[in-house]
Design brief:
Blueprint (H helix, E strand, L loop, with lengths): L10 H9 L5 E5 L5 H4 L5 E4 L4 H9 L12 E4 L11 H12 L7 E4 L1 H8 L4 E5 L8 E4 L9
Parallel strand pairs: 1-5, 2-5, 3-4
Antiparallel strand pairs: 1-6, 3-6
Helix pairs in contact: 3-4
Length: 149
């Protein structure tokens, strides 16, 4: 155990998040997502039994979002829904993002198949136990600014 680290962040997930560099992306997805196939060649960390919002809160507790891009967060649009529609599970994650000071204008919806294309360039996938559909987000890692060592 470590102090001040969310206990949901086990050794495998912490290692993946620490390995990521500035501009790398991590997808946090629901249980229905085709994680194993789309993760081919990249880390896939499973958080079975954990909801999407809870997993996103844990990841964002240690992952700085990229301040150099206008939209460091993407999510999968609900197919066939009107422009601007956000599902219940997506609204929950939007609330988590607000808690971390992320403005909704920095979050972009992405059409379902275009989202799958984005997954190809992610560094890793974190697959949760979330059973509600369209619970799929991508976070772009930023930098931590600090002083000299």
């Amino acid at each position: 155990m470590l102090k001040n680290i969310d206990p949901l962040l086990g050794p495998d997930l912490l290692k993946v998040l620490a390995e990521m560099g500035h501009g790398d992306e991590v997808a946090v997805v629901d249980a229905n997502f085709t994680g194993w196939r789309l993760a081919a060649g990249k880390p896939l960390v499973r958080l079975d039994g954990i909801g999407l919002a809870r997993a996103c809160r844990a990841v964002l507790s240690v992952l700085p979002l990229d301040e150099a891009v206008p939209e460091p967060v993407s999510y999968m649009q609900v197919s066939g829904s009107p422009q601007g529609h956000v599902s219940d599970v997506q609204q929950e994650v939007m609330g988590v993002l607000r808690d971390f000071g992320v403005s909704p204008v920095r979050v972009q919806p992405v059409e379902r198949f275009a989202f799958y294309d984005l997954i190809a360039s992610t560094y890793a996938i974190v697959q949760t136990g979330e059973l509600r559909p369209y619970g799929n987000f991508i976070f772009k890692k930023g930098v931590i600014l600090g002083g000299a060592l």
